[in-house]
Amino acid sequence: MFDPKQPYNALPLLPPKVDLESKAILKKCITARTALAELRLAGGLIPDPSVLVHAIPNLEAKDSSAIENIVTTNDELYKDASGITQESSATTKEAARYRNALYDAVETLQRLPLSARIAVDTCRIVTGIELDVRRTPGTTLTNTFTGEVIYTPPEGEQRLRDLLGNWENFANSSGDIDPLVRMAVLHYQFEAIHPFPDGNGRTGRILNILSLIQDGLLDLPTLYLSRHILKTRGAYYTLLSGITAKQEWEPWILYMLTAVEETSIWTTAKIRAIRALMDDTTAYIRANSKLPHAVVEQIFTQTYNRIGNLVERGIAGREASAKYLRELEKLGVLEAQKTGREVIFLHRKYLDVLNSDDHTFKPYMEPAKLATKPQRAGRGSTRKKAS
Q: Which of 132, 160, 277, 299 has its CA 20 to 30 A from that of 317?
């Protein structure tokens, strides 16, 4: 019988000896995979993939960190991503490490299959510590409010490495199990092994995304799965415990499939809103200036831009880059903010779209001083509102 105060060295190996593809699970797989496929297609609406690669992982990093009570804001994370690191709080820097770990892991996955080695490297970046598989006993998980021990993971370095080896084999098995079901099983098992001294939860959530990319269900790390987990954190932990204590796999798998479906739908709507704003912004700028299109693309790569961002991308030298950003400020597209000795430029409308749950924005209007020019008057004012 399971005892939460004793090391769970009897953790069963994968695959579980239960029916992982019940009628209810298979039915849910259909709707979840449809939503995920639509998300994958929506990614093609954005010509520059770096726009989404910068936008969605920041949202994921914020909420995955918040699950572990590491709290920051989207605004601070985007500011950190622009290179203004001297102003980042400790929690923002910690959440930013999650984002950086995700980027690194996705890049590594292009060369190597999903493995325990990737998990170790990911956890090191997430935590900022050169850690490895736990070697000393005494690790327990406790209730934050009562201090009660709710789970004691397996102990013994060799036992943990054996369990991770089994986890790795299942992750790369060629069986006919649905990839979404495999991802759900892998996530439970990794959390149950709890192989590292710290960072297991955040690492496990990055591994979810890697699993879907490896199985061809995602091209980019654009599934904002932690949003659903954060909103339903109580159910998340309860269902994980249900497997450990009673081998109740079906409720957990259904929960994860629901998370995939709902966050896919939400993120698809977010991507469509980003594209609508990009179209509206491009049309507005073209109607009122002769700025290079690369500048417009750049201000959707980062919500905060420095002159150096344009220079590093090869758009122009410092003088011309400064001129371009100031022109966008005059048009009302960007807001200049003084940060130390540097001026940064906030694309507020884009930040608002990323922060909003309803995915809407107000189309750009002509500045009063430009409305007096007959050849340009009215342009942009008839743009359709994003749906």
A: 277
